[in-house]
C-alpha cells in the first residue's frame, strides 16, 4: 500500500500489511487478544502534505471496548492536526493531556512515537513508558536498543501517558542509512514466556532479533511471531500483539508531491472548516 500525502492510516483492528512512504518501507502487524475484532493496541501512520514527514505511533492503552475506541479516535485526530509538524513535542504533550483527562477512571497508555524526515533521513523517537525500539545498523549488521534519557532534569520523565500532566518527554534523534531497520512492538512480545515459564524480557527480545536473517525484511515480522510462538504455545494468545517494522530506503518524495503540497494544505484547511476528513483507517475497514 502506498501512503497518500495528507493521509492518516491505522486503528486498533487486526492488520498485516506492507506500507510505503517516501524514504520508508513499513510492515504493520496487529492481532487483538483472542478473537476480538479490536484491541487495546493502537497504531497510526501519517504522511504530510509533501510526503517528506512520516509519523508512526504505537500505543498500548489500558481498558477495553468503548474507552479504547474513543482513545483511538482521539489519537487519529491528534495525528491529523500535527501531520505537517516535523517536531513531535506538541503531539506527545497533547497525547499526555488527553490521557490525563481520562486518568480519573484509571486509564493510561504506553506509547512510542517516531517522526521520519526523508530529506535528511533522520528519525526522532519519543518513548512514553513503552518497550524500547530496536535499531538494526546495516553496515555493522547489529541490533541495539534505542533508549531516551533526560540528563540533568528533575522533572518526571518518559512515564506512561496519563500518569502525570507535568511529565516531560525526551527525544532520541537517529541518523538512518539505507537498509537500516527500526522495530517497535507491544509488550506482549517482551512478556512472552520461554519453555520454563519465564518472561524473556528486553534482553530476550534483543537476543531473538539478533539471530534473525534480515536479508529479506518482509519476512522479519512473521519470523518473530513464529519464534515467539515456538517458545510457548500461549505466547500470542494472552494479549494484543502489535509490531511496526520500518526500513530506510533513501528515496525522497516526488517533485510532483513537493509542488502539490501548498494546494493540499489549502484543501485540508477547507476540509477542516467543512468538518470533513480524508483518512483511511482500519476501524472502518
Automatic annotation (TrEMBL):
Residues 21-248 form the PPM-type phosphatase domain. It is an enzyme of class 3 (hydrolase). It comes from Roseimaritima ulvae. It comes from the Bacteria. This is Phosphoserine phosphatase RsbU. GO terms for molecular function: phosphatase activity. Keywords: Hydrolase. It holds the Pfam family SpoIIE.
